[in-house]
Amino acid sequence: MSALDDTMAIEIASLPVPATADASKLAGFGIEVKGINPSELTPEPLKRIEQLPYNHDVLLFRDAFDPTSESYGRGNNKTEKTKKSILHPDLKTIPRQPQVQLIRYGTVYNHEGLLEAMLKHPSHTTFHKMQVTTLYGIKVPNGDQQICRYDEGTGDELEVPLGTTVFVSSKVMFDLLPPELKSLAVRSKVKYVHPYVLIAPTHAISAGLSIEMEGLELPLDQLPPWEESRRRTLPLFWRNPVTGSLHFEAHPCGAAELLVDPLSEGTNHEGVLYPDGVHITDLGTRPAIAPSLVYPHDWNEHDLVVFHNRRILHSVVGAFKPHQVRAFHQCNLAASDDPAGPTPEDVKKYA
Q1: In this structure, how many other beta carbons lie within 10 angstroms of the beta carbon of residue 7?
Q2: C-alpha pair distances (Å), 213 with each of 122, 137, 149, 164, 189
Q3: Where on the phi/psi map is residue 208: left (φ > 0), alpha (ψ -120 to 50), or beta?
Q4: Which tens digits make up the pLDDT trace of 85-133?
């Protein structure tokens, strides 16, 4: 196949939202990219596509690759080597392309140098960033719609396709916060220490936004070697460099600490939480995963979905029968820069 002409038009179309969703809240969230094949990109179309996730968060390419292609993206091959990581049982590395992981559910035979791979489907009963993640659907099972129950007393339910990946906007998470929590949000930073290893023995709550308070986290002295001086401290909300919007991007389960800055001198303290700063471990985000704010992607084989991990949260949902197989390639694209947090202007506006 010939390379794509740089002048070829890129068409975009909104992803269809299900009847359960509030279309006004998901306006602009998720697009299908047409008229271009990601395996044939030349520099100019690539520059245009690189900007799309900043405005639309999730990109879908239908029939993205020739199944016989030998060209894949780059990512990260370290997870499978970290035996204690909660991600370790769910990922199998493609031998000839170690940046690509084979994931999801069922037994796959003779695939890309893997004679047999038993894939495990994660759930909140066993547990519930890269800048960009790509998911490519190789084998997608057919089956009836399923009901996702939030199961935390609200009665919320969401009808979803079998084996869906659900996405929520972390911008909406900020927008829905009341003023007192917005003030807290723009002053907060989050601190980690081997998050996927720390929480490996734990169970997530049913909504997936935190872990059960069972005391099952690994003791710090059982983690892989680490130094206090090298622990990452990141903004709780990350600023979109293109739109200026703020997005919740702490790992909901893996965060170890929240550090809240005090209000600046002379700021009105009335109704403000922790005006003098505090060191805490919780900030609620549940309103933003209400059924009306969730986009559940209905996968087809050879769909390629590219999503911006600094703009959204995502989760796999559902359960499978033993004979069903759901096989995907996943490749994480690392960032060359750290995320930017709220600006002084943001803090002045919301704090």
Answers
A1: 7
A2: 20, 35, 21, 28, 22
A3: left
A4: 555 455 566 666 666 666 655 566 555 655 555 555 454 344 336 788 8
CA–CA dist 138, 303 (Å, integer): 8
Q: Which two tokens stand for residue 120?
A: 């495990």
Which pair of structure tokens corresponds to residue 165? 């990946």
Please tell me the distance from the alpha carbon of residue 311 to that of residue 314, in angstroms, as a whole number.
10
Residues 29 and 180: their CA atoms lie apart, in Å, by: 26
Decide: 351 and 186 in contact? Cβ < 8 Å: yes
Instruction: Please give the Cα distance from 228 to 321 (Å, whole number).
Output: 44
**Is the pTM higher than 0.85?**
no
d(CA 285, CA 346): 19
Give residue limits of the domains in the chain.
Answer: 11-168+296-334, 170-289+340-350
- The DSSP string of 258-280 is EEEPPPPTT---TT-SSTT-EEE
Cα 285 to Cα 126: distance, rounded to the nearest angstrom: 22
Give the separation between CA 304 and CA 61, rounded to whole angstroms.
5
For residue 244, pLDDT over 90 is answered with yes
| Amino acid in the structure at residue 273 | L
